[in-house]
Each structure stands twice: as C-alpha cells, then as structure tokens.
Design goal:
Elements lengths: L5 H9 L6 H19 L2 H4 L7 E4 L6 H12 L3 E5 L14 H22 L1 H16 L10 H19 L7 E6 L25 H16 L6 E6 H16 L2 H15 L1 E5 L14 H16 L2 E4 L2 E4 L4 E6 L11 H5 L3 E4 L5 H9 L5 H10 L4 E4 L1 H17 L6 H10 L1 H6 L6 E4 L1 H13 L1 H7 L1
Parallel strand pairs: 1-8, 1-9, 2-5, 5-8, 10-11
Antiparallel strand pairs: 3-4, 6-7
Helix pairs in contact: 1-2, 2-4, 5-10, 6-9, 13-15, 15-16, 15-18, 18-19
Length: about 450
C-alpha cells in the first residue's frame, strides 16, 4: 500500500474527478488512516476501526468514480455492489457474505498476477527451452560421444539466436495444453446456492461439483490435450504454464486474505433503496433483513471462503445513495452507527461540465479525439462549442431527470453521430463550433418529449 498523504491523494483524485472536494477530503483521510493504523502500536492496532463513509448525492456526480480511483491508488482489492441485488438469508438470491467471497477471489487474482510478474523472466527462460526442444528435438546425450555433443551444442546456440530473432515465428509446434477448470456458475438448474446462506460453492463442495459437472459434460476426464499452434502463441501458453508452476499457491492465498482484511474496499451503491420509511409496508421487511445481514459484515465478522477465513473488521466500507425519497436516518440505527462519516456531494453546474469535458485524463473529448485519431482524423472542439455542450447538458438535466455527467455522453453521441458514421471519409481535420452544436441539438432541445427520450 502506498503511503500517500491526504493532500497527495486528493491531487491524484483531481485528475479524474471534478469538484466534490468534501468527498475527496473524507476518503483521503479514511485511506491515510489505514496506513496510520498499520504504523500504530500493536497493543491498540486491532482496536482502531475504519472510517466508513456514506456519500449522499444524485447519480452521475462522481460517487463511484471517487471510490474506484481510491482503490487503484492504494492497490487495494475493490468491489462495487448494489444493495438491491441482495436478499435476506433464507430467501432466494444473493446473501451479503458473497460480497466478501467475491472480494477475496478478486484479491487472489490480483496477487497471483503480481507473483506471475515476479517470476515472468524465469518462466520465459524455461518456456524458451521447452520451445527449442519442441522445434529441434535432441536424442539422449548418453548415447553420443563428446565431439558430437559439442557439435549439437553449437548448433543449438545458433538456433537459439535465430529463435530470439523471430525466424521461426511462422512455424507450428504441437504442445500439451492444460484445459481450464470447468465452472458451473452459468448452470441455473441447480438453484442459487450462494443465496441459500451457506458456503455450498466454497471449499471442497464447489470443487467436487465443478469436477462432477466437467466429467458429465466433458466425457472422459483429460489432464491435457494436444494442440498445434504457431510459435508466438505456443510461447505465451508455455510461459503461463511455467509461471503457474513457479508460483507458491499457498503464499498467494495467504497474501490475498491479508490484503483483503487490511486493505480491502467495498463500495455499496444504492444503499438508500434498502432504507425503511414510515409510510411504506410490504417489501420493508426484506429491506430491513438485508440491513441486518449487512450489519455483522460491516461491524466485523468472519466469513468462510474457499481460500480460508476472512475477517471483515478492518475492511473499508463506502456506501452511496441519492436519498431522494429517504434519508440516512431511515437506516436501522445499528447500521447508521457503523457509517460515522457522511458527505453530501454537490450537483454539477455548467462550469463543472466544461471542466469534465476537458480537464480529467480520461475526459470525454480526449476519448473521442483518440477514437478518430485511429482513423487518421483530427477532431477539434472550439471553446464556445464546449461551453454550448455544457450549457445544454445543464438545461436537459433541469428539464428531465438529473443524471449528472452521464448526460454529456448522450449529448456528445448526438453531436458526433454523423462524423463517427462517415469516418474516415471526408476532411482530415474536423472543427466543431458552437453553431454545429446548436444545429445538432436544436430540434431535440426545444421538444421536451424528444429530449426526454433521446438525451
């Protein structure tokens, strides 16, 4: 985990998210506090709880992006879930413990890739030796005299140089390709086991079912199968195989669990949809049940996964919601107490939209320029045109549903529709002016019904 200061974290977030200074400040402090906890004395380290946050604000203002970028800054396992997708234990659907299981699987994958990178050079050397043996098989040296062995070694050295230069890239070799483990995730006839409240798909039961289904649909079990491929593809397959052999699986799993427990981030979106209001009835029972199931995960419990037991005491939880028809105080009191920090995000203004279109490293205009550059076209937006796009986005958000910065996507698509269709024909330099923007949006903006459906 990087030991970035809160100011440095905010500066990094500024590269991708416009405005929302209060939210950035809160998540920066929460992230830095995790590093501070690691440096604290062991006698109190386990007593320090994470600063869980609720972000309140309309859709499209940057809630998800802030959490996602925060996780990438910290190199932390990160998962985004929607609160409405979960059901109370005992009902058909996904139970909340699956959040931690999924987070652990992602962490294992993350750590595995890091370990693969560490052994990549050695794996490539071993794969190259295997490929040379496949291209130019050599008899057992025991049956040869010394002179013949020296001659063969010199020949192999020359062939090795030719191989490195890519002179054999068009040749085919036959390799033993290990099949990927079959998965029964897509088979629904067995029912939503994950939602039954247990760990049916974890540990031995999941592996047994995977093997059984693999034998059922794949016939006779095979450890590997012969495959004829070109040298570059064979090299890639063999490097992966050698890397897997070099990696210590138990070490990967232990490191992944450690990373989840101390650096994991869970982003729970639409938490306002599982709140309870005094007026409504019926589905509120299930909503309250989901909240009660979430409570032990957030406050700290132990979840069983196929890689081992994961403690959730120090996982950072960030929840978000628009809270149009409800408020954070509608959550059950115990869950409210586990989210001590509440930040309200501001609605986006026309000036914010102008900056969103131009400033971030992944700005929408930069994306479209990159797309058309691949066609050999140079796309240029005049300043007045950018302001016109931002102004129209604000107008449509005011008239119709306010979807924040996502409105820019629909407007940009409408403006560039003809250009994207006719490229690469026409002029090599395309300049978008404010008149072009007005012309593209004129009929739609003035017609409320059209703007609701198209923009």
């Amino acid at each position: 985990m990087k030991s970035m200061t809160p100011k440095e974290i905010v500066r990094e977030l500024d590269k991708y998210v416009i405005g929302q200074d209060k939210a950035k400040r809160s998540v920066a402090i929460a992230l830095r506090n995790r590093w501070r906890r690691q440096q604290a004395d062991k006698s109190i380290r386990n007593e320090i709880s994470p600063n869980n946050i609720i972000m309140i604000g309309p859709t499209g203002v940057g809630k998800t992006e802030i959490a996602r970028r925060l996780a990438s800054l910290a190199y932390s396992p990160f998962i985004k879930v929607e609160a409405t997708k979960f059901t109370e234990v005992g009902y058909v659907g996904r139970d909340v413990e699956s959040i931690i299981r999924d987070l652990t699987y992602m962490a294992v994958d993350m750590v595995e890739k890091e370990h693969e990178e560490m052994v990549k050079q050695h794996a490539e050397e071993l794969a190259n030796l295997r490929l040379l043996d496949l291209l130019f098989p050599v008899e057992q040296k025991e049956s040869m005299d010394e002179e013949e062995i020296q001659r063969i070694d010199k020949t192999r050295e020359r062939l090795k140089e030719m191989y490195k230069e890519g002179q054999f890239d068009e040749r085919y070799v036959e390799i033993d390709a290990s099949p990927k483990k079959p998965s029964i995730a897509g088979i629904s006839i067995m029912g939503p086991m994950e939602g039954m409240g247990g760990d049916m798909m974890d540990g031995g039961a999941g592996d047994f079912l995977n093997e059984a289904m693999g034998n059922l649909f794949g016939g006779k079990k095979k450890d590997s199968k012969k495959k004829k491929v070109k040298v570059p593809e064979a090299r890639k397959i063999l490097v992966e195989e050698e890397a897997q052999k070099l990696i210590d699986r138990s070490k990967v799993q232990d490191e992944a669990i450690e990373r989840v427990q101390h650096h994991g981030i869970v982003f729970i979106d639409e938490i306002d949809k599982i709140t309870i209001s005094n007026e409504s009835k019926g589905a509120d029972v299930s909503r309250q049940g989901v909240q009660r199931d979430l409570l032990p995960i957030v406050e700290g419990s132990t979840v069983k996964t196929r890689y081992g037991f994961v403690k959730t005491d120090h996982i950072l939880f960030i929840a978000s919601g628009a809270f149009h028809a409800s408020k954070p105080s509608d959550l059950i009191p115990e869950l409210q107490g586990r989210f001590p920090i509440r930040v309200e995000l501001d609605s986006l203004t026309t000036d914010d939209f102008v900056q969103i279109l131009t400033r971030p490293e992944n700005a929408l205009i930069k994306q479209y320029k990159a797309l058309l550059r691949s066609e050999g076209l140079d796309l240029v937006f005049e300043e007045d045109a950018i302001y016109e796009i931002a102004k129209n986005a604000t107008e449509v958000n005011d008239k119709a549903e306010n979807i924040g910065a996502r409105r820019l996507h629909t407007i940009m698509t409408q403006i560039l529709d003809e250009i994207m269709f006719t490229a690469p024909d026409g002029p090599k330099k395309i300049v978008i002016s404010s008149d072009d923007v007005r012309k593209s949006l004129k009929d739609i903006i003035t017609d409320d019904d059209l703007s609701r459906y198209i923009l």
